[in-house]
């Protein structure tokens, strides 16, 4: 009998939609309704725990969940502040991209962090950063609405998550230093090379296949035989294109899996190098 796999994902919030999407696209069927904390997959021996993102590193470190999806920012903060958090990132998932950055009021004259009061929900990461830079400053932990603290007079600046920068702008704040870049990651109680459960490894391969497919495109085009080399060089991230002879002499069809985005500019370049009938198609799954 194989062991059931438990995966912890955020119950609601910014990570939820993409985490659920990844599981569904990887072939795990399940449904969630409202406040359910546990969802059972209807087609695989998998349980999905629906929890707050802050609880995911600890659930995975204790082995309650075999895998979890969480922001690198949360994993890093907990790993620095709590010795019991030993979960390891095993795959970058490419969504929920943001950065942990310092920001100050637009009219602030602040030039350095020295002797300043910094409000943040990430005190361990900020203190580690200050220590590494040999800067003395006071760090205060605030759980929500960090962006208001300079205006109510309790901090000189903040260190918070930024994605587009729109929230900072709405609050008259300006970013001035980046502490870390973050994205959602798949975590496991042990590092990738120490995972020995074949079903878990197969599942990680499926996740990887879905992520790679999201960025990949299948390109088909026709070209003159003499321009094949030039055209293949223009195909972004194509490994080894397939060249198929066409009925018309001196012409071939080129088919390639491109692992990088194919922009209109690339297509126009291909065309000006003699390619015709250029088709760019989405890829659903890849298994390497
Ligand atoms: P929970 O109720 O599960 O504790 P939360 O309020 O702590 O949720 P969310 O706001 O849903 O968390 O954010 C979850 C994660 O989404 C963040 O930890 C971060 O990795 C990522 N994220 C991406 N962009 C942003 C952003 N602009 N602001 C905050 N988080 C972001
Ligand atoms: Zn949270």
The biggest beta sheet reads: 6 strands, mixed
The helix-strand sequence is EHEEHEHEEEHEEHEEHEHEEHE
End-to-end gap: 27 Å
Using the CA coordinates, give the radius of gyration: 24 Å
| Proper CATH architecture of the largest domain | 3-Layer(aba) Sandwich
CATH class of the largest domain: Alpha Beta
Order of strands, widest sheet: 2-3-1-4-11-5
Please name the CATH topology of the largest domain: D-Maltodextrin-Binding Protein, domain 2
Summarize the structure.
The chain has 288 residues and is α/β, with parallel strands linked by helices. The chain has 8 helices and 15 strands. β2 and β3 (46-51) form a beta hairpin.
Plain-language structure description:
- The protein is built from 8 helices and 15 strands.
- With 288 residues, the chain is α/β, with parallel strands linked by helices.
- The chain has 3 domains: 5-94 and 184-213, D-Maltodextrin-Binding Protein, domain 2, CATH 3.40.190.10; 98-182, Periplasmic binding protein-like II (D-Maltodextrin-Binding Protein, domain 2, 3-Layer(aba) Sandwich), CATH 3.40.190; 215-282, Alpha-Beta Plaits, CATH 3.30.70.
- The strands form 3 sheets. The chain has a 6-stranded mixed β-sheet.
- Helix 3 (72-81) packs across helix 4 (123-132).
- The longest helix is centred in the last third of the chain and has 18 residues, at 198-215.
- The protein is globular, with a radius of gyration of 24 Å.
- Adenosine-5'-triphosphate is lined by residues 10, 13-15, 52-54, 71, 73-74, 96, 98, 161, 163, 182.
- Residues 10, 13-15, 52-54, 71, 73-74, 96, 98, 161, 163, 182 line the site of adenosine-5'-triphosphate.
């Amino acid at each position: 009998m194989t062991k059931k796999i438990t995966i912890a994902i955020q119950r609601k919030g910014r990570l939820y939609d993409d985490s659920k999407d990844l599981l569904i696209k990887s072939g795990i069927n399940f449904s969630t309704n409202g406040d359910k904390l546990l969802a059972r997959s209807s087609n695989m021996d998998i349980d999905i725990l629906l929890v707050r993102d802050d609880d995911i590193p600890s659930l995975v470190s204790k082995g309650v969940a075999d895998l979890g999806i969480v922001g690198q920012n949360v994993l890093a903060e907990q790993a620095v502040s709590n010795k019991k958090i030993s979960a390891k990132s095993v795959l970058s998932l490419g969504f929920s991209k943001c950065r942990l950055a310092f920001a100050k009021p637009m009219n602030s004259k602040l030039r350095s962090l020295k002797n300043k009061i910094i409000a943040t929900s990430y005190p361990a990461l900020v203190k580690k950063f200050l220590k590494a830079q040999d800067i003395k400053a006071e760090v205060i932990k605030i759980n929500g609405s960090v962006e208001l603290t300079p205006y109510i007079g309790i901090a000189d600046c903040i260190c918070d998550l930024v994605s587009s920068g729109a929230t900072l702008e709405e609050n008259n704040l300006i970013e001035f230093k980046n502490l870390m870049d973050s994205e959602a990651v798949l975590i496991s109680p042990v590092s990738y090379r120490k995972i020995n459960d074949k079903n878990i490894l197969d599942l990680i391969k499926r996740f990887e296949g879905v992520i790679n497919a999201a960025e990949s495109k299948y390109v088909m085009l026709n070209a003159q035989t003499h321009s094949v080399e030039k055209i293949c060089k223009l195909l972004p991230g194509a490994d080894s294109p397939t060249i198929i002879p066409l009925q018309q002499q001196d012409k071939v069809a080129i088919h390639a899996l491109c692992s990088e985005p194919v922009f209109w500019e690339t297509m126009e370049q291909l065309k000006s190098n003699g390619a015709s009938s250029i088709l760019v198609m989405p890829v659903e799954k890849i298994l390497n």
